[in-house]
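Entry type: protein chain
Record version: 2
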Amino acid sequence: MGLNRVDLLIIAAYLAGITLFGLRFRKRQRTMRDYFLADRNIPWWAISLSIVAAETSTLTIISIPGLAYDSNLTFLQVVMGYVVGRVIISFVLLPHYFRGDLYTAYQLIERRFGPRLRTVTAGLFLLTRAAAEGVRVYAVSIVVSIALGTGEVTSIAIITLLTLIYTFEGGLAAVIWTDVVQTFIYVGGTAVGLVTILHLVPGGWNSVQAAAESFHKFQVFDMPVLAHWPYLDLLKPYTLWAGIIGGAIFTTASHGTDQLIVQRLLAARNQRQSVLALLSSGAAILFQFALFLFVGVMLFAYYRVPSATFGRADRIYPTFIVSRMPHGISGLLIAAILAAAMSNLSAALNSLSSSTMMDFYFRFRPEVNEIKRLRLSRLATIVWAIVLLGLAVIALHRVGRVVEVGLQIASVAYGALLGVFLLGVLTKRANQNGAIIGMVAGFVIELYLWLGSGVPWTWWVAIGTCVTFAVGYAASLLPES
């Protein structure tokens, strides 16, 4: 059926509207505190929605339904772990972030260990966040090329440019408040899509239920029997143990050590509001992933063909939107997917820029005045937009199911980062040299898990964290030469 003028008008109106809305925040950016922390004056509920938007990208919206199409609802076990991880952060890490005037997560590392380790941790964040974000930006091209028929590179460039405009001008305030709008758009759009799919399936809910039960699509829990220890199906990524344990440690790392999320938590008015924002985002993210997974189950009930028919599972949902959805609704859903893409990309641009400037440039050029600092920070935002565009182009035709690739790349660094942070907040004996040795060991182990083992990604952060912590603590006990 394809998109018609009404659909294209809806998409164009969204892209223009959200860009202009973000530009409204330009005049409020006068200092670094304004640009990177929104003057620490954002209410908890806005930060909560922004956290949800920051961890939701195009690849989440198109790949999670594809995951359920090919399997079932067992990915929700990982999301349950995400909620547990937020509780851990609230008690273990957040109290340390609110002791002092911090701009980045890695300033905490310098305060505890020293400047060398801050450089290492911030550098690792920049490398892995950029690589993971490149894959997420690439996912945009899947949707836009199917919907609009534009080339993949052109599709990536359009979204990157529009997102850059308001992120460049409005800083974190623009990012957070556009995130709020975009969250309502993509969650609401997905809910409309779910209802529409249900009406299009012959036989309605009864047909969906029959197909789902026949192929075990409603299965949420996969619980290996404890009597089988030590095996426990460790090579399966979505079991209860991998989901709860792996998901919790993954989120403790991603939301507790990654500048992408920590920057939002630091923008809260106080620690209590930061905790409230983080915990409430857990409830929202559980609902959201359930929604995306149910879309995949509905699509399976509608098509009942192997995902290979579409080339790859990631193409099923956008193909359905363009070819089967009524006009108007299809335009709304494409706009919703682009909303997730832009909110995630704006978060990445601002966090990469803040870490680059605060953890590197301004440390070595402290004499730079506030006006020049603001100008240089905006320039860094442009540079990172170009870098992410380039990485997204490289990712073309080089990745599998995009949501898992993005999570895998992030997981490679998270164990080493979380291990160092835990050494800092849980021990007094750990020192800078020992922590660096532990971090290198943890990162090497995670590279091996990624490139040379069959261990699923859900366990990588847990293993890397344990190795980093154990090696770092042991190395700290050795006499210094």
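Comment: The CA atoms of residues 84 and 248 lie 5 Å apart.
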